[in-house]
Amino acid sequence: MIQRRLFVAGSMGLALPAWAHHGWSSFDQDRPLYLEGRATKVMWRNPHGELELELPENPTLPPDLKQRPLPKQSTAVDGPGLLAKAQLPTRRDRKWLIELAPLTRLQAWGVDEIKPGTPVAVLGFTFTGEKGDPVLRAEYLFVGGKTYGLRSSPA
């Protein structure tokens, strides 16, 4: 019985890293990706909010992306530079896990809890070479006609 429990616990441990909290160093911050779709699952909890985003079959970059106004953050972020370099992922996954900011920061920005079915767009970073799971750490969140900076608190 003990061996079975250890096996189950070990198996669970193998499944967890894909959904675990990641530091910024895990992500390729020189290659911002733009994703747009609908939230299918939402985990509004600490250490940070997360959502599963389902992309359309043929994602595209919006023509106005480079001109979008961005809010000021307490940490310096070259938002216009990131928008100018934004690209679509090369991998064809339709579902991505989006890592948002901690709940206290989302509250500071006034982000309402996102509900499944909500249209959402994000600009952020995935793992170097798009290796591993389809995970994106959001730098900017576009929802409900508003833009939120997620690197730091509002300036």
Give an overview of the whole structure.
- Strand 1 (33-43) and strand 2 form a beta hairpin.
- The chain is 18% helix and 26% strand.
- It has helices spanning 2-15, 79-85, 103-109; strands at 33-43, 50-54, 95-99, 119-125, 135-143, 146-149.
- The longest helix has 14 residues, at 2-15.
- The protein is α+β, with helices and mostly antiparallel strands.
- A five-stranded mixed beta barrel has the order 1-2-3-5-4.
What are its keywords?
disordered N terminus; 155 residues; 6 strands; single chain; five-stranded mixed barrel; alpha+beta
Please state the overall shape, judged from the principal axes of the Cα atoms: globular
Distance between the termini: 56 Å
What is the tally of beta strands?
A: 6
Q: Class by helix and strand content?
A: alpha+beta
- Strand arrangement across the biggest beta sheet: 1-2-3-5-4
What's a concise summary of this model?
By secondary structure, the chain is an alpha+beta fold.
Lay out the secondary structure.
Elements: H1 2-15, E1 33-43, E2 50-54, H2 79-85, E3 95-99, H3 103-109, E4 119-125, E5 135-143, E6 146-149
Parallel strand pairs: 3-5
Antiparallel strand pairs: 1-2, 1-4, 2-3, 4-5, 5-6
